[in-house]
Amino acid sequence: MKTRADEMTGVSAAATLPARGDHAKRWLVLAVLGVAQLMVVLDATIVNIALPAAQRSLEFGDADRQWVVTAYALAFGSLLLLGGRLSDLFGRRRTFIIGLAGFAVASAVGGAAVNFEMLVAARAGQGVFAALLAPAALSLLSVTFTDPGERAKAFGIFGGLAGAGGAIGLLLGGVLTEWVDWRWTLFVNLAFAAVALVGAVALLAPHTSDQRPKLDIPGTVTVSASLFAIVFGFSKAESSGWASGTTVGWLIAGVGLLAVFLYLQTEVEHPLLPLRVVLDRVRAGSYLAMAVSGAGMFAVFLFLTFYMQNNLGYSPIVTGFAFLPMVAGIVVGSTVASAVLLPRIGPRVLLFAGLLIASGGMALLAQLEIDSTYTPHIMPGLVVMGLGLGTLFAPAMQGATAGVHHDDAGVASAMVNTVQQVGGSIGTALLSTIAVSASADYVNGKSTGPNTFAEAAVHSYTTTFWWAAAILAVGAVVTGAITRNGLLPEAEGEPVLVH
User: Fold this and answer.
1) Which of 54, 235, 326, 422 has the most neighbouring CB atoms within 10 Å?
2) What's the number of CA atoms in the CB half-sphere (13 Å) around residue 42?
3) For the CA atoms of 213, 124, 196, 38, what is the dihedral angle to 10 degrees?
């Protein structure tokens, strides 16, 4: 017969034994992760609208302006794989909290910047801590929700936030810049981070492991340098042209270092990116879909913003509100695809269909003319584009982390952000170059004047939309060919201490 002391001992032991996942608080955990993810994603666009005001305030030139955006992209893109692996090795909760706190501090420094150098340093700091935060958030989601039905709903909500964040950033950036001050596009992160930080400390269960963390230093150095060179090379292509020696040199260096990195991953005992993560056909297709969608989505934000502000005369706030139909499309598409369709048909069809629908949305936007208006000519394309992106975001995020051991969940999650960042950099550079060329070709041989230049600008935008539509369509076909058919495997939680 058990005594009271025996029962109390059993309860005490059970309270410290490892368990899989943290099921009791999982929906509150999703809210915390969603706030953090939204903060990271919207920061890629929220500062863009504030740039002219920041430029006037800190008195820096047009040539320097791109560095406020590029500093964030370079630090974020080049360190994502390291950030994902650190969360695997040292605990997702710890990495998530450090990322949140560091991101908040960097945002405060940027908001208080007294000169250009201080602002750029703060933006780079945001990128560094975002590289810790973003993979930790997605991997925490992956190991917390293991029930297939609940996992689909959770990824649908998270994917909707991730996809809509860029458009929300444009809206929030416009509101804060016009109604308050450009500095609040950075200070606002303190509110997001404070909410997420309190929730993380209170809700996230500590990771437990009996293995000593081992980091692949050669792999870390080579892949970080490679991603830096690739992202920087594409940013130079946008400003200096594809034939520039600087552009070519950086891209060659990036590709060469990437080849060295892949070789090292087959040789070292504890690789930074185990190749088993990317060689699975479902995960490979998911990564490709995210890369292609990144290229297309950045094209919409960039060139449609130009059209609405230059041709329609929209203010930053009105421009931000104009993107809300796309946000609605992303949220609806993501929720339906993840919760209703993915458990029944698997990711292959959804990745293919999502990219194809997004391509159709781009084709609608490519019909714009100099005298087009918002409701009949712009809004339908935004809605279709949003539905397409929403249809692929949540399934791609689930597919990218499906079937991985919990020890690899962080680096598998980091790959999602890495390919989207690199895809966005490639898309922005390529389509910006196409836009400049299309504009010059249109003007060539015509009489110059305000109307000609306005028509040339619209021609450059629609040309890029046709190219983006083609990229998305080709991406759909290749993704459909790569991705293995069938339903996703069940997810595995990670050992955590349950109190």
Assistant:
1) 326
2) 27
3) -110
Provide φ and ψ at 495, rounded to 5°.
Answer: -65, 125
pTM to 2 decimals?
A: 0.87
Query: From CA 223, how far away is CA 255, in angstroms rounded?
Result: 10
Helix extents (H) in 17-115: 26-42, 46-58, 62-90, 92-111
Separation of alpha carbons 265 and 164, rounded Å: 34
Question: Exposed/middle/buried for 458, CB within 10 Å: 0-12, 13-18, 19+?
Answer: buried
Distance CA 343, CA 230 (A): 36
3-state secondary structure of 470: helix
Q: Give the residue extent of every domain in the chain.
A: 20-215+272-483, 216-271
Average model confidence (pLDDT) for the chain? 88
For 396-413, what is each residue's pLDDT tens digit?
999 998 888 878 889 999
Whether residue 30 contacts residue 154, with contact meaning beta carbons closer than 8 Å, is answered with: yes
Give the residue, 157 or 1, on which the prediction is more confident: 157
Please, are residues 158 and 331 in contact by the beta-carbon 8 Å criterion? no
Q: What are the φ/ψ torsions at residue 205 (nearest 5 degrees)?
A: -85, 140
Report how far Cα 128 is from the mean position of its chain's Cα atoms: 14
Q: For the chain, first and last CA: distance in Å?
A: 27
CA distance 383 to 358: 9
Q: Which two tokens stand for residue 239?
A: 């400003």
Extract the tokens encoding 415: 């790959």
Q: How far is CA 255 from CA 72, 82, 229, 244, 449, in A?
A: 21, 18, 8, 17, 44
DSSP letter (8 states) at residue 377: I
